[in-house]
Each structure stands twice: as C-alpha cells, then as structure tokens.
Amino acid sequence: MDRPARIVTDSMIGMKLPDYARLSPRVATVLGHNPGPFTGPGTNTFIVGASRRPILLDTGQGVPIWADFLVEAMTELAHARELDRIVVTHAHPDHDGGVAQARERFGDIMVLKMPWPGHDKVSADSMTAIGPDAVIEADGVTLRAIHTPGHAPDHLCYYLLEERALFTGDVVLGAGTTVIPDDTGDLGQYMDSLHRLLELDIETIYPAHGPVIHNPKEKIREYIAHRQLRDRQILDALEQGPLEVMAIVKKIYTDVPEYLHPAAARSVRSHLKKLGQERRVTEHEQRWSLE
Ligand SMILES: [Zn+2]
C-alpha cells in the first residue's frame, strides 16, 4: 500500500493576519510583526481577560511596532490601561523578546515563566518562576500551565478554563508544523506532550503562529501522524544502506524548496536522535543505518 508523502499539507508561507483582533470575549490577539519562514506572519501575542487588568501571554520578538499595536489593542479591544502580569510560553526570542517593550509601556509588571537556566533573557530577579502545573488567576480568567517539553525544555502551554481553550505556543501551530531543534529539543518528549494534550477537553487552540484552530483533536492527531510518518520515511530511506543526514533529507523532502533543506535536516536529526534512543538506528562516522 502506498503511504502518503506528507500529512500536514498547509503552510504559513505568504499568510497574512491582522495587526490586532478580538478572538473571543476573553481573548484578543496582537501580531508580533516578526514575519519569517518559521514564524509565518509573526508571533501571536494574546491579551487574556475581560477585566480592566488582563494578562499578556507572550511578547513577540521585541519589534517596536508591536508595542504600539499592543497599546492600541489594549485601549480599543480590551478597554484596559493596565496589565496584570505577563506569562511566557518559553524562552525563545520570538516569545520573550518584547518583555522590555511591554514594561516600558505598562510599568514593571511581573513576568511568569518556567525557568530554563542559561536561556532565560528575562533576568532572574524580575522573573517569577512557575512550576509545570501552575495555576494563574486574574479577574475572570484562570490559566492552568501544562508542561509540554520537546520543542523547548521549558515550554508551557496554558489552558484557559473558562473557554476550554489552549494556548499552545510553539507546540501546535495554526498551519504547517513546528521545528524540534536537534540540540535543545527532544522529539520523544514532544510526542509525549502531544499525547497528553490530546487527553484535554479542548474546544479551541490559540497557537503562537498562524490562525486559530477550531478542530483541536484532529489537528493534534495530525501532528502525531505527521511525526510517525517521518519516522517511517527515515527508516524506509535507510533500508538500502547507511546515509548521511542530507541524503535522507533529499530522499524525503522532495516537495520542499531547497532553501528549507537545512531546517529539514535539523528535523531529520531530531528524528534520528529519537530513533537512536529507541535503538532503531545507529550512527557511524556521520552515516546512519538501521540497528
Ligand atoms: Zn519556540
């Protein structure tokens, strides 16, 4: 039986999103204005809460125009002048890069995140460390942290109880798939994170990149199937004998433009790392073969 060449078929290339928009009674979004091959139109940052002191969830890359739009969105959409707190999904620069701008505009507000020593740019004395299942309450909203390592070891998704909505950060994106870095990432942990998210009662996913997801279970299952297919394709590619990473990329990513092959190679390395941990492949002088 022929297997499909890919499972996730949409992408964020060329996608446009508004500067800011209201998404639900409790959630508004402000675009980070940091477009790129991996960020799509840019990072989605979120104003969470219907009160005069909402929470800011993620801060984008630190692009000045984002902070201007944040102030506009706070006034026009949230009718608020103050932020309660900032919560951050993980210490990648397109998520915690705007903390300083937000504080310039809204004062020295508290920043909550799970620590990642050596990677946190928010200084330890101005960061409030939260644990893997912290509960954050503001006026009318409750966010429950869910530790979802794999994309990054400190990654927290946040479950908005009042809407049964999940802020997935970079674990699940609105289109395309996420990068699992082959050094700081861990695909085995990532798969485990996806399986745990699948058990939640979710109606909506607010991803950090791309549009809102209204079919959460289907999307998460698609992400799991996508990685399982990649595992299979790599094992198939190695059936003929040992291969270097780039040779595997060229065999599998036939429908991906060449400028994305280095990123694809990182992804393949993440898969090989996982398959190695499972003792299904082994490396010898940069060539991989089946165990
Ligand atoms: Zn990230």
* Ligands: zinc ion
Number of strands: 14
Overall pLDDT level: 94
**Structure class:** alpha/beta
CATH topology of the largest domain: Metallo-beta-lactamase, Chain A
% residues in beta strands: 15-25%
Oligomerization status of the protein chains: single chain
Give the terminus-to-terminus CA distance. Answer: 25 Å
Q: SSE order in H/E notation?
A: EEEEHEHHEEEEEEHEHHHEE
State the helix count: 7
* Helix-residue proportion: 25-40%
Largest sheet: 7 strands, mixed
Order of strands in the sheet with the most strands? 1-2-3-4-5-6-7
What's the CATH class label of the largest domain? Alpha Beta
Give the C-alpha Rg. 20 Å
Tell the overall outline.
elongated
The number of distinct structural domains comes to 2
pLDDT below 50 for ≥5 consecutive residues: which ranges? none
The CATH superfamily of the largest domain is identified as Ribonuclease Z/Hydroxyacylglutathione hydrolase-like
Overall description:
Helix content is 29%, strand content 20%. The chain folds into 2 domains: 20-226, Metallo-beta-lactamase, Chain A, CATH 3.60.15; 228-290, Arc Repressor Mutant, subunit A (Orthogonal Bundle), CATH 1.10.10.10. Strand 1 and strand 2 (27-31) form a beta hairpin. The longest helix has 22 residues, at 216-237. It has a 7-stranded mixed β-sheet with strand order 1-2-3-4-5-6-7, with helices on one face. A 5-stranded mixed β-sheet has the order 8-9-10-11-12, with no helix packed on it. It is α/β, with parallel strands linked by helices. The protein contains 7 helices and 14 strands.
